Write the structure tokens for this entry.
Amino acid sequence: MSSTKQKLFLSLSAEAQRCLICSEMRDKTAVLSELNGSLDPRVLFIAEAPGRQGADRTRRPFWGDKSGENFQVLLDSIGLRREEIFITNAVLCSPRKPNGANRNPKKSEIKNCANFLRRTIDLIDPKIIATLGAVSLEALKLLENHSFFVRSHAGKIVSWNSKILVPLYHPSPQVIASHRRMDQQLKDYAALGEAISNLEAAARMKFDR
Ligand code: SF4
């Protein structure tokens, strides 16, 4: 990774951590730092927002809560290591209800944070993006429109903005219980594994020529 890329990322991350645009999250700090992963990842994952028990507490996406444990099982199923991926969120701060419980991010908050999502994708420039849930898939539309839905496109390899996109469900216990069971999510991740293998085999063939 170039030192320029690292410097630009540190500057972006500092800017995000100072950001106060969303009025209901002024007491929260954006989860965007070197703890989000590799700046030259095999896959860039985009989730919804940092969770209370997970990233907002540990500052590391999908770390410290049940969603993180489920995500680890899914990564392990295709041999993808944490140090080979980067994880960000459609909304970088943790949206909460007045009682402190997690809440869904508002459309206005997703729109406010789209600038950071765009700049993160542009800077990291991944070949493969995997969205985790409907919110992050919708958020991509703010950067470049598409017609994908998690319900119909989960586990499918599609193309978005000159990149390979694999929509996936969120690995939270609630989603696994009500929308996409773990055995189904494992099949979706197999498609992501296939996208990675195809891309890396094509790169090797090009290099060997
Ligand atoms: S969610 Fe994004 S836009 Fe909103 S305050 Fe946090 S960093 Fe800023």
Q: What stands out?
A: The mean pLDDT is 97.
